[in-house]
Amino acid sequence: MITLALVAQGLLAWFRPHLALGVLLFTIPFGHLVRFTIVGIPFTFPEMAVYVLAGALALHYLLSSFRAEVSRSREPGAWREESHTVESLSHSARSFVGRGLLRMTKWWKDPWILLPLLWILVATIAAIGSPAGDRAWGIWKAYVVAPVLLFWCIRALREKLDVIRHVVLPLACSAFVVSGI
Q1: Spatial distance between the Cα atoms of 10 and 139, rounded to a whole number of angstroms
Q2: What percent of the chain is modeled with pLDDT above 70?
Q3: What tens digit of pLDDT does each residue of 6-59 get?
Q4: 158-162 mean pLDDT
Q5: CA distance 141 to 138
Q6: Which residue, 148, 120, 139, is CA-closest to 42?
Q7: 28-to-108, 123, 147 alpha-carbon distances in Å
Q8: Would you say 57 and 153 are in contact if contact means Cβ atoms under 8 Å apart?
Q9: CB 21 within 8 Å of CB 166
Q10: What are 44's strand-pairing partners?
């Protein structure tokens, strides 16, 4: 049953990520009652749904950037006569890496990316030095990594996201249902 729900969340995250985010935010208060283990590691449903949503968004981003790169290379005039020299290969590799490095220089200047990364680093160091052992890693996974991934998912969808409809309304509806219970 949990596998079916996670597959449905994955399909929803792939085709309608905003709706998947809304469903995820709605299930946060109830989903912690559903616990399961994968290879001995305990998970809750909202935590796993965050990982599924983040994975779908990352895969979608990688595929769309790959498609953009392929379509850019198929533009008229993009194909030149092939030169089998190392110089042309080196130049194309440098330009591809250069574009990637140019994008990388932008993300580390953004505090909304850098600060959560530092938070994960600090929590990782704390989990390494913790006497709790495996419990520390479970807390690290559930209370540090999953919320940061959810934050990044919301930020990734923010341009196309109707915040009231896809973030506030699911949280308000879940609060209403919880208060009625």
Answers
A1: 24
A2: 78
A3: 999 999 999 999 999 999 999 998 888 888 888 877 889 999 999 999 999 999
A4: 78
A5: 5
A6: 139
A7: 30, 22, 11
A8: yes
A9: yes
A10: 35
The one-letter amino acid code at 15 reads F
pLDDT digits (tens, 9 = 90+) for 105-132: 566 677 888 889 999 999 999 999 999 8
**pTM attached to this predicted model:** 0.75
Token pair recorded at residue 70:
């392929």
CA dist 2 and 38 (Å) reads 12
Q: Which residues fall within 8 angstroms of residue 6, CB to CB, at 6 or more apart?
A: 45, 48, 49, 52
Map residue 37 onto helix, strand or coil. Answer: strand
Amino acid at 83: S
Calpha distance 149→162 (Å, rounded): 19
How far from 118 is each of 24, 106, 144, 145, CA to CA, in Å?
Answer: 25, 17, 11, 12
